[in-house]
Amino acid sequence: MGEQRQLEVSTHVKPPLELTSVPRWTVEPTLPDADLTGATWTVLAIGPDAGPVVDSWSAQITCARPGAALTVHHVADADAATAALDAALAGARVGWRLMVAGPAHECLQVRAHAVRNEVADDEMTFASTEVDHRVVLCVHCGTRTYASAGIEDVVVCTGCGCNLLVYYHVSRRQGAHLGFKVDAEQLEQTA
Amino acid sequence: MTASLVSAPDLLANFPFPFPTDQYRYTTNVEPARGPVPTPTGVWGERIIDIDSEYEHELALRERILERDPSRYAVLPHMRVAAWDAMLTLMGEMAKAYPDTMSLTRTGDTWHWRNGRLDLSADFVLGDESALPMEPLAYIGSQVQDDIVLLDQRDGDLFGDAGVVTFAADWSFGFDVGMTFLEIHGPVPRLRETGVITRAREFLMRLQPGEIYRRTNWTLTIGRRLDVSTELYHEWGRDRAMIQTVSDDEFGRLVHLRVELQHLVRLCESGAICFLIRTYMLPFVDLATVPEWRARAAAVLEELPDDIANYKGIISYRDRAVDWLKNAA
Amino acid sequence: MSALDLVVTAVDDSVPDVRSVTLARPDGGTLPSFTPGSHIVVQCGDVANAYSLTSDSVQPTSYQISVLKQPDGSGGSVWIHGLTVGDAVSVLPPRSAFAPILRARKHLLVAAGIGVTPMISHLRSAKQWGRDVELLYVHKPGRGAHLDDIAELADNARLFTTRADFLAELPDTLATQPFGTHLYICGPTTFIDDVVAAAEAHGWPPSRIHFERFGIGALDPGEPFTVKLADTGTTIAVDSGVSLLEALEAAGHDIPNLCRQGVCGECRLTVTSGEILHRDMYLTDADKAAGDAIMACVSRAACPELELKL
Questions:
Q1: What ipTM was predicted for this assembly?
Q2: Which chain C residue has the Cα nearest residue A94?
Q3: I need a surface site. Which of B100, B128, C160, C181 has the fewest CB within 10 A?
């Protein structure tokens, strides 16, 4: 976990989310309906709060498509979810859908892995159970820092120690926010 | 007074001065490529790939940057065809623009490329990686001064899925690889809300094979520093504070008008879009030797709204830049 | 778009009612390269028709198209069937509207009749780049086009001479494609609609389904509607089977147009009210959603009356 510091917030207007690369479900807990258009489903529930979400999805799918080929995995974190995703992709056929529920930052990691495996946007659905934590990728040293932070908060990089602004910029393939040195334009004072 | 230039003479003669009027706003300023643009000092725009006296230096710089940070180069697996397509297309443009030193010919399935300026050549069949010393996009990237981004058009959108970008102006290609055109342009309120970037995207998506358009973008950079990527912001960011402390002489030598001449090419074989970004920089002292440029740059910078100046990173020294240009008359 | 002035260098009538025409520059020079799946718009006397290119796509010295003779059509195909070697033909540069998806791990091509033509350039490109490609082709007995090309370019093409045989294999084919496959369909409108419906029933997401409709003749005649012209206030009736473009022309309006089948963009008109039924291949999804532009040659109203800025 990285240290969090509140530095002076600049007086600019926050951009509307739709004009950024930040998915809305990473700032507001979101529960979309199940995607009923598929032929087979892999459903990943990350963390304890995801259970009820996944149950409701399963109910929707089996109600609309009795006998549907639906596989549910309950996992603890994104790493385990990604392993389950890899296993599913190995034998998947077109018609397969991915549905993931869990903390937003874990879902983003799973989405990144799916994107790298060429899963299309209309083949995946995400439900976020919690939106309080973010993974910030330091653009200077490449280290990922996990923190309880909002967008435009400042987080200390666990790699190089820079004060990173958590930017309104999320990489599809990295599943993390861009973080850059927020005080780079200040001439250095001795600490 | 005979002004002596900091820059080599061809850099002044070829400089694509970016301000057509005294006021600058974000616009979707695309126009067909290749048209020559006469300026007070010379002409620019006739060539898609432009080689100048900085050629060898900039290529060597690119090589060093890539060695230190390979993340500035990426070709996602599905972009292999687009990479070959871009390489072949750019070779063709170079051969057309510099027939005395570059040539691209073909016997049957075998292509013959010769770059006389760098004294290298290659004979290859399309798709056969073993014939080239490195991947096709890396190969052509090592022979042009432009940054290159290849966009895949699918699902009603454009994805930046390949490229070599070593001279980025405050963005990170390594972070942005795989993102859409709109996402890459990020949360610039004025850009996105006025629809400039959306219209640019719609325009790009309609480009037909073989069509080439161009546009310019500009900012100010402190020092003749090509690599002002976000990756290195922790190094060059402090220049924006430092510049306020230097003498007027130093100010004029350090502050550069930086212009990106972008070419937008629809590649024929792959259908991908090749986005070329060619960076030109002229220090204020050289800019001031051209009265029309000096006056117009001063007018544009003075009138520039705060949010645009802020986003371009120049707000902290903009007023001094205006004063410097006015006093240089 | 400036036209290319070409000449006919070869014709091939070996398949009944299908004529393959080879076009080249009079001086034999290189023609613009094109993206696989592209078409050219050919000036066929008084009408302009779009035809898929079937030949080599990289700096080619000739273009080849295959044209099905349609005696009840607008006359374009008949004009082409009347050409002889040496005749002059004016064409627009290639336009890409049905390109292979770069991200596809496999390309499943499904074609009927003359709809196989864009698939031929897909097959050529697949061979050049080592793509995994599979073709299903339904054609009337004795009237399969490009069968030699298919044999040369495709390892596992499946050919059918009856709809029943094709429909017997289609469901299993759609159900067993490896994840990452993309589907491309070309042929008559009802054929496309049926295959799309089957794919969707097997869970194919829209992003993996691609199709190219052929010619206005393939479009259904549509419901009648009226248009109100905003500038003059006059109202014009558009009958079933008549295009908006034809109705406006009949009423004396001179509307810029070229291909008259929804690909070139010339006949775009501004709509100020009314819901549009888009049937073209020119407007982007965003354009169509904005609802203020209509391609007059193929699109219609999804409501009783449209208002045009005219």
A1: 0.91
A2: C179
A3: B100
